[in-house]
């Protein structure tokens, strides 16, 4: 298809303001240092965005990014990422979704799609085998995610893979998601950026083929990766239990943020998890055709007040955000809220975090009467949750304040609420707690997109569960050398975990395969045969390091510095109740010292947090 073996070889550019469509051929010189996905997208955004660009203005870019291993044959290769400047944090934004659409985009001839400008009226971007057109999407306006998908199918797009935004994206909720079916690319507001551009849907159909440089060698490396996955003892847990399989253990180890992070454990983990398995779970599923691990869950609420049709959902982060965060023991209601968030196209973690924050504001008497009229915001009150989800997505009443995230909500509510608005760089915290594993605190503090559950979640498995991801040959220290609550001397470990955790998004795969034996070596084998380049695991780790640094440079250009590499006081403090109540060993005592260790390992200036000149030269970013 393109000139580069293993790639589709083209970038599609669509100027939504003028309707102009063009294609560009990336060169090996530009592509190889970043390879693809969130790495190459960082290069585009760094090169083409001006500092201070309004994230919801026409000058922001929205990128659909595949990686070279985005291929349903590769374990985890059903993947698509979205990158832009975040309206929630004002910094680097990326969000990934598991789906068939990434592979289809490559078959249609494109590795990347870059959207610029703003359409005057709602549009649907249709990409068909190397051709792109903008159609009216007036009929989709205001519709939920399932309704939009049904309308697309009815209007002739049943053979296309489509993404849509929900009403939350149309109303510019700052943590609106991009939805592919009922799977979400959430967190940092990519759905709001699409909404600001008046793009309600993108559909793709492709019949081409990406040709590997060494087809036999590629298939051999792919088969070897599948063998490793099949033989890993960890695969069973993902397939049988999905991410919710960890709920009880997270509660026990102090990794479950509870009551707006007042504690790191709840003591209800076993009951919540068993209700989910017995009442809500209906079967395992994959987010793309051919995923060998299929950790996705089909869930429903069969009957009762929260009756909910079967859908893809019930992930650990969603259920945690709608149970422990606000002391809600009604798991059916949590499943229902997850469904509503998906239907309305808003992020489940930030929505749950915002509601937990609101309940604490109410408890402390900080809310004006007009904000709470008709709402019982007592801790644990399930009945109010679905109502609040709708109010956030539709920006109604107090939901309009929460729709801008807890950082801005605290600025408006005042009364000292900043102290318990849990976020980093504006992104609400996910359902893992650094009081279980100290490296997670620095990972949260330094995350390019903020308090992120993706880059890297691996710190908990490393620090607390002593899992090394096969990264010891790349310099990772033996996790047994550290206690999970030890604070100093873990900077290098965190750097290596972060870089390894960055790789799947660069290559276009699912990171859960790192937990079942796929290391940079396996990725390098597949990639070398695919592209014809001779790539080592070490080169891949350096590529990830380069991407991490470039995304950081993007943030620095937007004004971020060491002062933004924070961990909220609430999260550093000894838990107020639960298994670890008052335990000062699990509290984060020397965050600055840990940050120093990490900066040292990264080659970043201790005072500013910027990569040193030496680091930039070493990575070819000078
Ligand atoms: S392992 Fe799970 S998250 Fe990853 S691609 Fe498969 S179903 Fe999706």
What does this structure look like?
The protein has 622 residues and is an alpha+beta fold. It is built from 25 helices and 17 strands. Helix 12 (331-344) runs parallel beside helix 15. Bound molecules: iron/sulfur cluster.
Looking at this protein, list some descriptive labels.
six-stranded mixed beta sheet, binds iron/sulfur cluster, 622 residues
Question: How would you summarize what this structure contains?
Answer:
The chain is 39% helix and 13% strand. The two termini are 33 Å apart. The structure holds iron/sulfur cluster (SF4).
Topology:
Elements: E1 11-15, E2 21-24, H1 28-31, H2 37-48, E3 62-65, E4 79-85, E5 92-98, H3 101-107, E6 112-116, E7 123-128, E8 131-136, H4 145-157, E9 161-165, H5 167-170, E10 178-180, E11 183-185, H6 190-196, E12 199-205, H7 215-231, H8 235-241, H9 247-253, H10 269-280, E13 281-285, E14 296-301, E15 308-312, H11 316-321, H12 331-344, H13 348-363, H14 369-372, H15 384-393, H16 398-402, H17 405-413, E16 423-424, E17 427-428, H18 438-446, H19 458-463, H20 491-507, H21 520-531, H22 537-557, H23 569-572, H24 591-602, H25 613-618
Parallel strand pairs: 1-6, 7-12
Antiparallel strand pairs: 1-2, 3-4, 3-6, 4-5, 7-8, 9-10, 9-12, 10-11, 13-14, 14-15, 16-17
């Amino acid at each position: 298809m393109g000139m580069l073996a293993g790639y589709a070889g083209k970038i599609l550019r669509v100027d939504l303001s003028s309707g102009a469509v063009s294609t560009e051929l990336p060169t090996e010189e530009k592509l190889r240092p970043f390879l693809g996905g969130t790495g190459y997208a960082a290069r585009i955004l760094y090169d083409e965005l001006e500092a201070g660009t309004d994230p919801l203005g026409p000058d922001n870019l929205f990128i659909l990014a595949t990686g070279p291993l985005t291929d349903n044959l590769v374990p985890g290769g059903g993947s698509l990422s979205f990158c832009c400047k975040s309206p929630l944090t004002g910094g680097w934004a990326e969000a990934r979704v598991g789906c068939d659409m990434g592979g289809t985009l490559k078959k249609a001839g494109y590795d990347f799609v870059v959207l610029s400008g703003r359409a005057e009226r709602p549009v649907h971007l249709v990409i068909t085998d190397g051709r792109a057109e903008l159609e009216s999407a007036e009929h989709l306006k205001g519709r939920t995610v399932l309704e939009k998908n049904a309308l697309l199918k009815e209007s002739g797009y049943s053979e296309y893979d489509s993404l849509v935004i929900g009403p939350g994206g149309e109303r510019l909720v700052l943590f609106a998601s991009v939805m592919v079916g009922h799977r979400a690319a959430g967190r940092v507001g990519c759905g709001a950026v699409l909404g600001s551009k008046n793009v309600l849907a993108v559909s793709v159909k492709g019949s081409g083929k990406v040709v590997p440089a060494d087809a036999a060698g590629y298939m051999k490396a792919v088969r070897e990766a599948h063998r490793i996955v099949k033989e890993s003892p960890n695969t069973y847990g993902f397939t049988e239990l999905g991410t919710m399989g960890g709920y009880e253990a997270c509660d026990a180890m102090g990794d479950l943020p509870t009551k707006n992070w007042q504690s790191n454990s709840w003591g209800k983990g076993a009951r919540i998890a068993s209700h989910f398995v017995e009442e809500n779970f209906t079967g395992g599923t994959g987010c793309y055709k051919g995923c060998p691990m299929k950790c996705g869950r089909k869930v429903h609420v069969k009957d009762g007040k929260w009756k909910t049709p079967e859908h893809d959902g019930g992930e650990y982060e969603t259920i945690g955000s709608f149970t422990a965060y606000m002391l809600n023991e009604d798991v059916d209601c949590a499943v229902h809220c997850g469904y509503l968030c998906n239907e309305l196209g808003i992020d489940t973690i930030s929505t749950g975090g915002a509601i937990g924050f609101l309940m604490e504001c109410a408890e402390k008497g900080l809310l004006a009467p007009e904000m709470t009229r008709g709402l019982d915001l007592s801790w644990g009150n399930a009945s109010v949750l679905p109502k609040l989800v709708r109010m956030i997505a539709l920006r109604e009443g107090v939901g309009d304040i929460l729709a801008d995230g807890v950082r801005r909500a605290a600025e408006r509510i005042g009364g000292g609420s900043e102290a318990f608005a849990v976020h980093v760089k504006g992104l609400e915290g996910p359902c893992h707690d650094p009081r279980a594993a100290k490296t997670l605190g620095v990972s949260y503090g330094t995350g390019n997109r903020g308090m992120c559950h993706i880059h890297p979640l691996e710190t908990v498995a490393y620090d607390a569960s002593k899992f090394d991801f096969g990264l010891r040959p790349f310099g990772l220290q033996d996790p047994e050398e550290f206690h999970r609550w030890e604070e100093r001397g873990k900077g290098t470990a965190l750097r290596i975990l972060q870089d390894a955790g960055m790789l799947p998004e660069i290559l276009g795969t699912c990171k859960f395969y790192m937990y079942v034996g796929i290391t940079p070596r396996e990725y390098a084998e597949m990639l070398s045969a695919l592209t014809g380049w001779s790539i080592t695991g070490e080169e891949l780790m350096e590529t990830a390091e380069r991407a991490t640094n470039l995304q950081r440079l993007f943030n620095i250009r937007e004004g971020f510095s060491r002062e933004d590499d924070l961990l909220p006081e609430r999260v550093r403090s000894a838990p107020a109740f639960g298994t670890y109540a008052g335990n000062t060993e699990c509290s984060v005592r020397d965050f600055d010292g840990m940050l120093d260790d990490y900066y040292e390992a990264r080659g970043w200036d201790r005072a500013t947090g910027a990569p040193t000149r030496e680091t930039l030269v070493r990575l070819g970013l000078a």
